[in-house]
Amino acid sequence: MEEIDKLWLSMGIANMEWGQVLMMAVGCLLVYLALVKKFEPLLLVPIGFGALLCNIPVAGIGGPDGMIGMIYHAGIETGIFPLLIFMGVGALTDFSALIARPSTLLLGAAAQFGIFGTLIGAVALNYLPGFDFTMAEASSIAIIGGADGPTAIFLASRLAPELLGAIAVAAYSYMALVPIIQPPIMRALTTKKERAVVMEQMRPVSRLERILFPFVVLILCALLLPSAAPLIGMLTFGNLLREAGVVERLSRAAQNEIINVVTIMLGLAVGSKLSADQFLQTETLGILVLGALAFCMGTAAGVIMGKIMCYATGGKVNPLIGAAGVSAVPMAARVANKVGLEENPHNFLLMHAMGPNVAGVIGSAVAAGVLLALVGN
Amino acid sequence: MEEIDKLWLSMGIANMEWGQVLMMAVGCLLVYLALVKKFEPLLLVPIGFGALLCNIPVAGIGGPDGMIGMIYHAGIETGIFPLLIFMGVGALTDFSALIARPSTLLLGAAAQFGIFGTLIGAVALNYLPGFDFTMAEASSIAIIGGADGPTAIFLASRLAPELLGAIAVAAYSYMALVPIIQPPIMRALTTKKERAVVMEQMRPVSRLERILFPFVVLILCALLLPSAAPLIGMLTFGNLLREAGVVERLSRAAQNEIINVVTIMLGLAVGSKLSADQFLQTETLGILVLGALAFCMGTAAGVIMGKIMCYATGGKVNPLIGAAGVSAVPMAARVANKVGLEENPHNFLLMHAMGPNVAGVIGSAVAAGVLLALVGN
Amino acid sequence: MEEIDKLWLSMGIANMEWGQVLMMAVGCLLVYLALVKKFEPLLLVPIGFGALLCNIPVAGIGGPDGMIGMIYHAGIETGIFPLLIFMGVGALTDFSALIARPSTLLLGAAAQFGIFGTLIGAVALNYLPGFDFTMAEASSIAIIGGADGPTAIFLASRLAPELLGAIAVAAYSYMALVPIIQPPIMRALTTKKERAVVMEQMRPVSRLERILFPFVVLILCALLLPSAAPLIGMLTFGNLLREAGVVERLSRAAQNEIINVVTIMLGLAVGSKLSADQFLQTETLGILVLGALAFCMGTAAGVIMGKIMCYATGGKVNPLIGAAGVSAVPMAARVANKVGLEENPHNFLLMHAMGPNVAGVIGSAVAAGVLLALVGN
Amino acid sequence: MNDSSLLFESLWLMVIGMGIVYGFLLLLVGILRLMSRVALRLAPDEPPPAPLAHRSIGSGDSEDLIAVISAAIARYRHPR
Amino acid sequence: MNDSSLLFESLWLMVIGMGIVYGFLLLLVGILRLMSRVALRLAPDEPPPAPLAHRSIGSGDSEDLIAVISAAIARYRHPR
Amino acid sequence: MNDSSLLFESLWLMVIGMGIVYGFLLLLVGILRLMSRVALRLAPDEPPPAPLAHRSIGSGDSEDLIAVISAAIARYRHPR
Ligand code: NA
Ligand code: NA
Ligand code: NA
Predict the structure, then answer these.
(1) pLDDT digits (tens, 9 = 90+) for A102-130
(2) Shortest CB distance from C53 goes to which of A211, A233, A246?
(3) The whole model's pTM is what?
(4) What's the per-residue H, E or C state across chain A?
């Protein structure tokens, strides 16, 4: 009969805690959002399923001896997974639009107001009961405003691993919600005439420029902000593999094998941080609210910078493309295009919005570097 | 001259032990079986060559500082390799036949008699001289009856790593021998009329059902048998990637890159356990005999359960598909189909046999969970 | 204001050392050679960019907690990366030419004079001021003469990791320079008549021979020189996957996914050894000079052995194919073909040169085994 | 533990083990039947990609997300 | 550190942080413009693969390599 | 160890090393010739995939496996 006892004690229902049930439901919700609402499914399916797996009682899949716990230890604590994904992003990204019109970098800079504004918001929340964010935690939350998954995971794993789950979920969820969050803000801040501005066609970019670009960005980063060098370094390395033209095998490996495999592992590992202890806290609500705020502020700052550039250039820049400065590649650029088309069905802004869009990736990495340098130990 | 001495002492022939020669021959035999007899070549080629490499004297390739020894440590001791293969199996498996006719799960349940019957057999062998299996060892041997490689490797690496080599070799060898082992048993236990039963066509399965299936299986497993959750969890995760439809990149990575790379590494690492000390023991003969017995018992139990279901449904179930309950996907289903065709050349049982076939995978994982919960420390 | 100080101290320009600037320039030079001069771009792009990344001040990307430092630790210190690349080389190499005419192995043997001659050269350099190579360092430098990247990295990581950067750079640079280094030597050592020798067509090689070949090579290596067994073992394993015909999935994984991903990681990790401390030393100049010497000696020895075989066979062997014995697959074989075509535009030596070319790979691995056995601890 | 107690234990394991395997899979049979019935009611005509393929993000999704997670947190922190 | 000093610090971080982001990206704008001008001068007609596609290893490359690296080593070892 | 003894040792290494390389590869030449002769006798007509492609599992394979491994175990445990 002792066996029966042992068996009963080994069962899930005998060990299930209330929080685990709720977190398994949260995991299912994330998969539901991914499958039915198409919220960034490549990330949210593994994250949601990882949450489901890691909240199974007794099994300890997310624990130190469990498979996903070991993957977290090897890939996220070390920072290797987000950096490898950034390499893949670099190999998948065409920076031509940015090289052809470098001034769009300023739109990518403005959108980082979303990060620093949210930082103040997170610190201000401390006046409410139930919130007690340290500077490191506030910085990790703020990076959601970068609208860039790997950057957010990289920073949070360094500054506030206990919030990683909520931050990753918020970052990817709001990136998926960009088509809903951004348009009202864009319409509210621009006039009909501004939205109808037709931009002139971009010049073609030579191969030599595209090859020199990664070196220019990396060396500037090395000189000024080495704390951003891991992120910027892997991004530019991936981009060099893409543009080199003589290392096709490596470029394909970075764009496919590596990024796909790492995405599965990263997602599962992030899911392991969705435990009741860490996720079912008042702080999580704060993170979700602040995340929405971050996207709104970033969008608004980008659009306002777009208006300034529109004015400064005598109406050559459509302010809508400023909203693409939050990154969320390529969603935010598509949104700018769509809102533009509403005003003038022949005005395709997509290519013009790609400049600020990829500038936003660089801008967020730079902002992450600032936070690491000033807030990190 | 000292160099010549050093050189001689570094040579293989000066250090070769009798057992290493034999094990290198066993490695070559496994590759021979794989190449010429087509015994599960994807596994037995790396296992055999791994045995060859790891029995080279002096080199220590399978030792703690050798490449294959390090792969074993990182991938098998941790259980990560068999779990990743299980993810790939999930991504490669279509569970529609099982969803359309859930009752075939009972055939997959019956076939697990092969496991538990073999457990008794292994313990009974202890009455013979030269055998002294502990409960953990007997359980690891019994899992050969599950006819499922990754499950066997996962369980053996946890309960009896010293027997892992022999168990993996037996499991894959007998899986390859399924077309020889099963038909006589199937014919002996069924009447001509039973073998000729034509089953009605299965209903189509909706996409929603296929997406819900992994969750249903995983949650039941989490509630009742969390010790099986790593195996069932990765199987259902792989299957969700397959059925989700929105994560094609990840599904392909699980079905190709990950499973192929891990198969190479897993095979080499299993080969490193084919050392003379551990393999050239009387126990190995016992394992080989018990393994054959396990397959026979599993097949017989599946067929008998098939007869019971045939009787219970008034002759709507062909008992031959019960033999597919041992797993050995998709070999056992093909055997059921072939034996059925012998009786009636127009009676294609393949799709009907896929239900019990994949049910056998789940059944074996459940049985492995029971053994882990009750026999594991 | 304290923040401003902290920020300034975190900047690259405040911490940049002279040597780091130079090494970043060396990294850029390597990428330049790879992209513009097409020097082995698959390796030199990652090595050069890795050097750039690892010399960024403050960031510590190549340090023990940095991404590339961790990759170095996991993949190069353990020897796993070069061995996996060797597996891929085996899976990509067709040994038919060698099997059809085994005597070409002697050309591959002769070319290893490049290794041992360089060993003497390295030791002799110690008479100059600024040089103080140990036997282990001299051996690592000598292996450049093997003209085989993974072998050189494997040996250097074992015997002299502090020289790994310079050795890898020299090995790959000179492999790229084979079309410039070899022809003058080949022309100087052969007569017009010798260069015009037309060789008879090779017999076809049966599948059975191609399958037995890896076993023959590996078992001979196991008996005589187990210190070479890791290299020879992975080479023959990859080749068996290729020739087996029944493990296509694994063969493709070895030829593509594994070798591509590992090449990226290996390149970055080797680049991390290009630090000012270790690279900007007089020794590096010695290594570069000795590397050139090594290729010249290997080429000369191969050609002379070719002349001997030409004489011994009564003029059936074209001595030019001896130069292909240095490995540098397939570059050296193409060079032999090209120099032959200069003399007789209808005399295609390519297939004949593939025999000594792949023999050179085996020969270098054997020589590496000798050095490991006699010089390694 | 001597051989015969091991034998007894292994018989016992077989009984329990096959019991659990059958119990688990029988339960699964029932739940899968239920699941299919529910699934067919939810998506009866089965134009398979329809409910999933067209991007139908209603404007309330963002609030939905927060509402659902808030409810979960509230229940967790004040279980009674 | 109490809440208001944190708040002050975060305001300060915003000023510095946005300053660096703008400074960095403004500098990058300038350098990218310079880069494009230089690149277009170096490869004006832009027959894109031309300068890279044809294998043009001059016979002096080997010496070039050693010359360049020698110079670097020399500068490093005798910086003044 | 001073420089000249190192030099002597390296000369010695060259003699031994080249000896082994030549010895190894000469042996390999011989064995490969033997292998080819044996292979051509075993599969003379060389319809390459024939002996391997058609699945020819004789019914005695299972016993073969056990027989061969049994023999190996027997030899190992009672070497004389
Ligand atoms: Na951004
Ligand atoms: Na099974
Ligand atoms: Na060589």
Answers:
(1) 999 999 999 999 999 999 999 999 999 88
(2) A233
(3) 0.92
(4) CHHHHHHHHHCHHHHCCHHHHHHHHHHHHHHHHHHHCCCCHHHHHHHHHHHHHHCCCCCCCCCCCCHHHHHHHHHHCCCHHHHHHHHHHHHHCCCHHHHHCHHHHHHHHHCCHHHHHHHHHHHHHCCCCCCCCCHHHHHHHHHHHHCCHHHHHHHHHHHCHHHHHHHHHHHHHHHHHHHHHHHHHHHHHCCHHHHCCCCCCCCCCCHHHHHHHHHHHHHHHHHHCHHHHHHHHHHHHHHHHHHHCCCHHHHHHHHHHHHHHHHHHHHHHHHCCCCHHHHCCHHHHHHHHHHHHHHHHHHHHHHHHHHHHHHHCCCCCCHHHHHHHHCCCCHHHHHHHHHHHHHCCCCCCHHHHHHHHHHHHHHHHHHHHHHHHHHCC
E interface toward C at CB cutoff 8 Å?
12-13, 16, 20, 51-52, 55-57, 59, 61-62, 65-66, 68-70, 72-73, 75-77, 79
Query: What is the phi/psi pair of residue A233, to 5°?
Result: -65, -45
- Cα A308 to ligand 1 centroid, rounded to whole Å: 20
A 35-74 residues with CB < 8 A to B: 35, 38, 41-42, 45-46, 49, 52-53, 56-59, 61, 66-67, 70-71
Ligand 1 centroid to Cα of residue A252, in Å, is 25
Contacts of D69 in chain A (CB under 8 A): 26, 29, 284-285, 288
Instruction: Name every chain C residue with its beta carbon within 8 A of the beta carbon of A119.
Output: none
CB pairs under 8 A between A and E: 125
Q: What is the ipTM of this complex?
A: 0.90
Q: At CB < 8 Å, which residues of chain D contact A?
A: 12-13, 16, 20, 51-52, 55-57, 59, 61-62, 65-66, 68-70, 72-73, 75-77, 79
Peptide bond into A319 cis (omega under 30): no
Judge whether residue F67 has pLDDT over 90. no
**Ligand in nearest proximity to the CA of C364:** 3
Interface of B with A in 252-311 (CB under 8 A): 252-254, 257-258
Q: Looking at CA atoms only, how far is residue E5 from chain C in angstroms?
A: 14
Interface test with chain C among A218, A219, A247, by most C beta carbons within 10 Å? A247
- Rounded Cα gap, residues A4 and B42, in angstroms: 40
Cβ atoms B271, B68 nearer than 8 A: yes
Q: How far is the CA of A76 from the centre of ligand 1 (A)?
A: 21
**For the CA of A115, the nearest ligand:** 1
Angle separating helix axes A207-224 and C41-54, nearest 10 degrees: 30
Tens digits of residue pLDDT in B145-168: 988 999 999 999 999 999 998 999
Per-residue pLDDT of chain C (377 residues; tens, 9 = 90+): 676 787 788 888 888 899 999 999 999 999 999 999 888 899 999 999 999 999 999 999 999 999 999 999 999 999 999 999 999 999 999 999 999 999 999 999 999 999 999 999 999 999 998 888 999 999 999 999 988 999 999 999 999 999 998 999 899 988 888 999 999 999 999 999 999 999 998 899 999 999 999 999 999 999 999 999 999 999 999 999 999 999 999 999 999 999 999 999 999 999 999 988 888 888 889 999 999 999 999 999 999 999 999 999 999 999 999 999 998 888 999 999 999 999 999 899 999 999 999 999 999 999 999 999 988 86
Average pLDDT over residues F2-14: 85
Partners of B249 on chain A (C-beta within 8 Å) are: 42, 256, 260, 263
Enumerate neighbours of A (3 or more CB pairs within 8 A): B, C, D, E
Test C256 with A234 for CB contact under 8 angstroms. Answer: no
